[in-house]
Amino acid sequence: MSASRLASGGSDIDRARPLTFSFDGRRVEGFAGDTIASALLASGQAVVCRSFKYHRPRGIWGSGVEEPNALVDIEGAGGRVPNARATTVPASDGIVVKSVNASPTALADRNAMLDRFARFLPAAFYYKTFMWPDWHLFEPRIRAMAGLGIVDHDWKPREAADQINHHCDVLVVGAGPAGLAAAAGAAAAGHSVVLVDDWTHPGGSLRHRAGKVDGMEGTAWAEATVARLKSDGQIVLMETTAFGLYDHNLVALNQRHRDSRPDTLWRVRPRRIVLATGAIERPVPLANNDLPGILSADAALAYLRRHGVLVGRQIVVATNNDSAYEPASALAAAGTSVTVVDCRRDAGAQAKAGIRILPGRTIAAARGRNAVQGVLLDDGTALAADCVLVSGGWTPTVHLFSQAKGKLAWSDQLAAFVPGESVEGIGVAGAAAGTVSLSETLASGAAALGPFGSSSTPAPRSTGAEATLGVVSLWPKPKAKGRVWIDYQSDVTAKDVELAARENFVSVEHLKRYTTLGMATDQGKTSNLNGLALLADVTGRAIAEVGTTTYRPPFTPVPFACLAGARRGSMHPPVRRLPLEANHRAAGGVFQEYGGWLRPAYYGGGEAGAAIREEARRARQSVALFDGSTLGKIEVIGPRAPEFVDFIYYNTMSTLKPGYCRYGFMLSENGVVFDDGVLVRLDEHRFIVSCSSSHVAAVHARLEEWRQDRFGRDAVYIHNATAQYATLTVSGPNARGLVEALDLGAALDEASLPHMAVAAGRFAGDEVRITRVSFTGDRSYEISVRADRAEALWMRMQQEGRAFDAVLLGLESLMILRAEKGYIVIGRDTDGNTMPHDLGVAGPRTKRTGEFVGRRSLFTEAANGANRNQLVGLAVREGEAPLATGAHGVEKSGGRLRSIGFVTSSYRSPTLGRPVALALIERGAARHGETIDVQHLGVVRQATIVAPCAFDPEGKRLHA
Amino acid sequence: MQLFPCPFCGPREESEFHYGGEAGNLRPDGTDVTAERWAGYLHMRDNPKGPTREIWMHLTCGEFFAMSRDSVSHKVSGSSALGETEHGA
């Protein structure tokens, strides 16, 4: 192949602005407006990468998104991009381009010898061969030898990608003749329009195919139309790909930028979508059709007219249709020798000046090693050539239409699938709908607007030459000689398709997965139809009967950075923060995320374990301060509120007196404990549901559901006030002394504020709520205050606390304190089978007569089972280490080990000087005193089943 | 991304909603409900292909409502607020 740049011409390039970049270490020159591919062609670079599996040399095939071969890794201002299509990425000064799957370079690849073993490596070779002893032994080496570009694992976007939501009347995808006609029509009718195109300039095929519109040259008309749309205030996005069409006509766009900004994601909700996405030229089946120097005929014309690049000197064109004659004539006019091998017998009628036509002939094989050197015709004639152009007909780009669940219809006349029945809100226009002539194309653009078209403004008219197609089928044939590539990027040949059919993979979806046909980064844009036509032939079916595989987004690869936008790092997912976070940090708090909240795990910079144990030890000595602001505070108010909480809770709650609180469970309808916590009754019709910190949203949703579905909106009102209040807890033997020192104006004596009672107080003019509930087992006061005034109270607590040697508790030491008491954490000490009677709370189940959530499930066969896992404590022998959380209790049964439950929480208690553990053990409640085997990672230890509460079992300290 | 019509907020994107089950799955009260009936309420779903009536929650406003939707075409034909005690039946 001896491609070169012409001295003049090229509508897309600016010869006054030269640029250079490197390719595989070589310097490549080009101009502004070049793609990497056009610059590589102009510099005579035939081999640009190595194929996925066989490491075959590959060159540039196409001129746009369809490109199956020319994948490159690019290092530029925005970082490294793997597997970029050289045909779509604009060349820019100073970028470093590297061929994929080649080492050291595409031309001198050291794994090129793999191709010599190709006949031993058919489809599914790896699955069949590397079964024994274990695929995983072979996988790393096979993966290293096969593959494409290399991901830079350290790459991070410098900034978050913009994401834009947009609504418009009409979205037009594709700024070719059909799309421009549609956009102009919609704008004329007064609608807001968004026009997108993946190329740098508008016009589509008008930029390289002859055509006149309303008396103007095609390119000039396209640019004038876009200029008018822009001056009308319509949005025109170039270098933007509509990559996905989702439910209810949401269209996702990927907009690329020339600077180092990450790509922008647009989510557009148009009222009408016009798909004017064009068509993609198909390869012609011939042996060795993947040699560098074999290109799409349309691409050759595009390189000539857009970039002033001549793809060869001695050119053979293989075709089955009329569209190849414009490239042939144009290249001949540019001074090359052109021979057209046309499979149609009547092709002589196409005779044009300067080109030789061989009608009724096909090419059997291409010759050459690293570049095409000639072809062999079906009659044995050999022709020399440095470039072979192929045009096997056109495949309408129906991807977005199919993503919208549009059905395709087979057209014999076009030898292609075209959009069938229309989809609501979507019009398909131009070559995507199967039009050929410019007249038809322009008319279809206007018509695709449906009710959004203009009745007064006439559609643009074609005033020049009209294209014809005249296609006949030229599909790959079974048992062809040599290797005929179907899918270049996945390295799938016709023989692989035949093999799959022979092995009964006759569904097109199975064919795809078995051979990987169409599964590469190009998603088979050039290969799918040839593949399924061959499958149809081999299995004796019609192509329409075989059908296509499912089209899924994205149409072209989209960077994750574009899809992620701002949702990365600390924004993915965002954590909830305490109102007093800054104070905790100043006090040396080490933060961790707990159920979506960022909370202090412990305080102080020392070793975590020691710091945590020290906090737990000191908390039992005098007094501890703890920030419990994350605890749920959901207010339930209204005339039927008492009835409502009775229904929601497992425990009877309506008997609670105002000013008191009660601990209880909420169940799921399947009887499993869903949440636990304290319910506060402020007055007759006002309760506060205090639920687990990480469960607030779920509990709130559940309360709303029953309120709206069972009780009525005006019977109960629910307000989630969790974030409005901070809850600061004082706990320990000296808790009362400290709270008294705070001077909250509430009587704290045992008669006025006993355990499980609530009192109102004031701090610095604000009302505070003082609740005597305990999660430590010591006398505790939970003080709830307006979140925005919490800092002053917290500072005061610490100040007064000095006299009491008060300690700050992180969440980890609180976990030790509650485990010493046998207090459970739902979801940790319970699982998806745990019912309240498994936790020793059987009373309401047997005694309650009213209805409550989950009630019926407590009386099923499973709920009454004798072998249920029940909450117990586990004690180990003096001096032993704590049991591992998650360790299983085991027993021998019929010669095999069987799990009888597991350890749910396990800590070393600094106060007791020994380990404590909670566990769910089969029939555990009746087995106190029994010693069982506990196994973890193959090590078996003994533990004795005890009551869950290991510290102060009489509960004296609650009142001390 | 589907657009769901919240009866209170109008059309919003599906990511703002939480599925609440099939409409008309009425809760049988009491402990004398047969095990079969209760299991039906808890677990048995019609999972219809085509027109469906479903309960959805709009997370941003907290309201539950019934919506008619086609499980194949994803076409939404309407939505209505829950009544006093009906379960969208």
Structure commentary:
- The complex is a heterodimer of chains A (960) and B (89).
- By secondary structure, chain A is an alpha+beta fold.
- In chain A, 21% of the residues lie in helices and 29% in strands.
- Chain A has 22 helices and 52 strands.
- In chain A, α4 (177-188) packs parallel to α9 (438-447) and α16 crosses α21 (811-821).
- Chain B has one helix at 35-42; strands spanning 3-6, 10-13, 17-22, 51-58, 63-70, 76-81.
- In chain B, β4 (51-58) and β5 (63-70) form a beta hairpin.
- Chain B is globular and about 40 Å long.
- Residues 84-89 of chain B have low confidence and may be disordered.
- Chain A binds chain B through residues 246-248, 250, 267, 269, 405, 669-670, 700-701, 704-705, 708-710, 712, 851, 855-857, 859-861, and chain B through 1-3, 14, 18, 20, 27-31, 33, 35, 38, 41-42, 57, 59, 62-64, 73-74, 76, 82, 84-85, 87.
- Chain B: It holds the Pfam family SoxD.
- Chain B: InterPro entries: SoxD, SoxD_sf.
- Chain B: This is Sarcosine oxidase subunit delta.
- Chain B: It comes from Mesorhizobium album.
Which features does this protein show?
heterodimer; A: 960 residues; alpha+beta; 7-stranded mixed β-sheet; 6-stranded mixed β-sheet; B: 89 residues; mainly beta; 4-stranded antiparallel β-sheet; two-stranded antiparallel sheet; 1 helix; 40% strand; disordered C terminus; oxidoreductase (chain A); BFD-like_2Fe2S-bd_dom_sf (chain A); 2Fe-2S-bd_N (chain A); GcvT_C (chain A)
Strand order of the largest sheet of chain B: 3-4-5-6
Q: Profile the largest sheet of chain A.
A: 7 strands, mixed
Strand content of chain A: 25-35%
Count of DSSP-assigned helices of chain A: 22
Category from helices, strands and their pairing of chain B? mainly beta
What is the strand tally of chain A? 52
Determine Rg of chain B (CA atoms, Å): 14 Å
Number of strands of chain B: 6
Number of helices of chain B: 1
Specify the structural class of chain A: alpha+beta
- Tell me, what's the shape of chain B? globular
Mean pLDDT of chain B: 90
Could you estimate the helical fraction of the residues of chain B in percent? under 10%
Low-pLDDT residue spans of chain B = 84-89
The whole-number mean of residue pLDDT values of chain A reads 94
Distance between the termini of chain B: 27 Å
**Which regions of chain A have little confidence, pLDDT < 50, spanning 5+ residues?**
none
Largest interface: A-B, 24 and 28 residues
The major sheet of chain B is characterized as: 4 strands, antiparallel
